[in-house]
Write a structure and sequence with these properties.
By secondary structure, the chain is of the alpha+beta class. It is built from 4 helices and 9 strands. The strands form 2 sheets. Strands 5, 6, 7, 8 and 9 form a 5-stranded mixed sheet that branches. A 4-stranded mixed sheet has the order 1-4-3-2. A hairpin with a 3-residue loop joins β7 and β8. The model has no long low-confidence stretch (mean pLDDT 95).
Length: 137
């Protein structure tokens, strides 16, 4: 079985957050979801556990970062093309997300970012496969 990753993120309003990611085309795994948690499926091995703040607090003794004031994490997703980068970020911005950082364009790499309704920063990046292969030597 391949190794999996579950990124845990605190959310203020679970239904708003689920609706936002649903508009971006993501699905949820009901097996790991309940009234306080939604398991956002990013790929076969990558998931974001969206936890209401009280539920998230059960997993840590630390204070929950206020993502509207500080950055606790930047989540980066790959995209299969420049067009897919634009499509996902434009949809996020039209669905209640907000801009995060300026776009990057190095020719062989292109990326844009957005903040979800909870102010978590998501970067969406495309890299030219031939440039990646050339850098692995």
């Amino acid at each position: 079985m391949p190794q999996m990753i579950f990124v845990n993120l605190p959310v203020k309003d679970l239904e708003t957050t689920k609706s936002f990611f649903g508009k971006l085309g993501f699905s949820f795994n009901p097996q790991f979801s309940d009234e306080n948690t939604a398991c956002l499926v990013i790929s076969d091995t990558i998931f974001a556990m969206l936890l209401t703040e009280p539920r998230f607090k059960e997993f840590t003794k630390k204070e929950i970062a206020d993502a509207s004031k500080s950055t606790e994490v930047i989540l980066a997703l790959s995209a299969e093309s420049r067009e897919k980068v634009d499509e996902l970020v434009d949809t996020a911005l039209a669905s209640g997300g907000s801009p995060a950082n300026e776009p990057i364009d190095y020719g062989f790499m292109y990326g844009r970012s957005f903040q979800d309704p909870n102010h978590h920063i998501w970067e969406v990046v495309w890299m030219d496969p031939s440039a990646v292969e050339g850098r692995q030597g």
